[in-house]
Design goal:
Elements (H helix, E strand, L loop, with lengths): L1 H8 L2 H5 L5 H35 L5 H60 L2
Protein name: Snf7 homologue associated with Alix 3
Membrane topology: Peripheral membrane protein
Main location: cytoplasm
């Protein structure tokens, strides 16, 4: 039964892992964002090449032109998906940065409140 439990609940090491720090998460999000931007650039180049190929074969070889247009359409679909993923990653990165800023502000406000309390106690 323990093997079955491990299968559904995962191993102890996977449950015992600590959550990543904000800096680690931000670094990973930035790396992913850079990778997606490179893929986006690559797909844009491929779309341009397929369009040029379709125009080249336009009247002489309709089959090759249609295949190039189908590939172009597929690349455009992938590009749309990447755009959505990039916007999600950007939103998460900004939310994480803002939460870090908010945490610092609240920590400093707590420090100031303690200082004010100490000043009032000394009066």
């Amino acid at each position: 039964m323990s093997k079955l439990g491990k299968f559904f609940k995962g191993s102890r090491s996977s449950r015992a892992r600590a959550a990543p720090s904000a800096q680690e998460a931000l670094a990973r999000l930035r790396e992913t964002e850079e990778m997606m931007a490179k893929k986006q650039e690559y797909l844009e180049n491929r779309i341009q090449r397929e369009l040029a190929l379709a125009k080249k074969h336009g009247s002489q070889n309709k089959r090759a032109a249609l295949q190039a247009l189908k590939r172009k359409k597929r690349f455009e679909k992938q590009l749309t998906q990447i755009d959505g993923t990039l916007s999600t990653i950007e939103f998460q990165r900004e939310a994480l940065e803002n939460s870090h800023t908010n945490t610092e502000v609240l920590r400093n406000m707590g420090f100031a409140a303690k200082a004010m309390k100490a000043v009032h106690e000394n009066m």
